Amino acid sequence: MPSFAREMLREIYEQPEALRRTLAHYLEGDRLKPEVAALLADWPNPAGEILIAASGSSRHSGLAAEILLEDLCGLAVDVEYASEYCCRGGGDLRHPSVLVLSQSGETSDTLAALRAARRRGEKTLAITNAAASAIASEAEISMPLAAGAERAIPATKSFTCQLAVLYLLALYEGARVGRMDSEALTARIGELRALPGKIEAQLDGWWEKTARLATKYNSAATFLYLGRGIHYAIAREGALKMKEASYVHAEGYPAGELNHGPNALVSDRVPLVVLATVDRTLDASILRYEMTLQLLRDMKKQGARVIAVANEAMKRYIGW
Fold this sequence. Notes:
The chain is of the alpha/beta class. The protein contains twelve helices and eleven strands.
């Protein structure tokens, strides 16, 4: 385990316990606590339309939530930059339910977006890391995280806790609208409960590997982060982290979009960071994985340097 010379590193290592606290705050066995379910029962609008407004890392968790809520629940979800939503003018005739995300609960653009939604009479839900914050207090429903104080500027444990609560929200909605039976719900919550322990077991290994990679790629001019589906949201977040923590330029792209212009940048000085994990129980995940592998083969022919984030069992198939 490294010594914690930086708050960000300390908070990376605090993620497992932060996740445990957050899950305990919302779960009772393999179900949402009754009081939480009661709060959420009337939140979605009748047409199943949701608008997510957030900034920075919170917007990236919102992009992940868009995939979860659409795929697991059949809802129609839009994700807006909070800074844009509050100054667009006009009105949304659909009157979607509005979900706002903020680590601090005080983000000015997100607070303005929340107030704009309330003026329009839209139902509002806030997920923050501060239960007494302005955003948590002004939203109709508040789902606070239990990540604990986050001192580093780049979000780490609050981001993973946001993802966990958004996943719980999607599981609850999926069950409520009949898109998920009790057996599937129990299995998914069981997987979520096992996640903190799995992260804990990997942290030291990740630290050692990334320390070696930092030395190997220290001459890179920029990084391109790539992912498909929900991994695109994480690619965007990875690129933001590179910029925030290292002052090195990085961009996040959907993996399939690399061939539509950005591949011109691929060179020895522009490494690719590719999310290439797979869930063999899901046909869509297998398809995304195989398409990503083909992209990597093509980029290798172009001379790309690749850092692949992959399943342990899949490393031999990646070949980089």
